[in-house]
Amino acid sequence: MPINRLPFGDVVSAVREHTSLLLGTTIGYSDDDWATPTGLSGWTRSHVASHLVEGARSMVRVIGELHDGVERELYGSAQEEHDAIELGAISGGLNLQISLDTSASELQELLPALEGDDRLVRLRDGHAIPAKHLPHARLSEVGLHHFDMDGHFTPDLLSPGVALALLQFHVERIGHRDDYQPLCLVADEGYEGSVGRASDAATFHGPAADLLAWLMRGVESNRIYRSGQ
Predict the structure, then answer these.
(1) End-to-end alpha carbon distance in the chain
(2) Fewest beta carbons less than 10 Å away: which of 70, 105, 150, 161?
(3) Best CA proximity match to 101, nearest among 93, 166, 220, 140
(4) Single residue among 97, 118, 153 that ends a domain in this structure
């Protein structure tokens, strides 16, 4: 079921807003807070922050390469990314905060110029997205990883429009993959999408924010229900 996408400018503004929310959370972290494990296996808060820094830097690099005529990969090798994240994670809380702020600010300045840009950028899983959807990818990183870092950041803090845009983005990104349980997701806001290739997909209904958190992080919600049950 197609829907009208959130206007490009609104997505760019949402990236700025949710980055500010994230930085407002992390500025209060002590060294012990930064070392706290997250729900992501083997990653502390400092690892998640370092990943966000590397993600912003990768997008800045890719945007700079859009005119060079070569195939554009958002990330380098998995080993290179791992090494960069580990190095950033031990740099200390102040350095992480500064790097989060400066890398995000540099990226934010470049995002508006991507409006209408259909040139493809390839993600690590082989899925390619048009450059105009890089703000969606960044918004997803910031929103989901804020949730990973701070249990007080809940799906309710995503506006319905932002949650719906991110749900659609991820359904389109992973919908073709075989490693997801076949699901049909029906958002209260007026969107329906499917993931997984097998037939007989189970259908689940609920608010877009709750469906997003469940799909991407396995977060249960009493506002999600299965058809026929």
Answers:
(1) 23
(2) 70
(3) 93
(4) 153
The rounded distance, in Å, linking the Cα atoms of 53 and 142 is 10
Produce one character per residue of 45-65: b if its CB has 16 or more CB atoms within 10 Å, e if not: bbbbbbbbbbbbbbbeebbee
Cα distance between residue 201 and residue 120, in whole Å: 30
CA distance 2 to 191: 7
Rounded CA-CA distance 113/110 in Å is 6
Low-confidence ranges of the chain (pLDDT < 50): 1-2
Domain that holds residue 124: 1-153
pLDDT digits (tens, 9 = 90+) for 36-45: 999 899 999 9
pLDDT digits (tens, 9 = 90+) for 153-177: 888 889 999 999 999 999 998 887 7
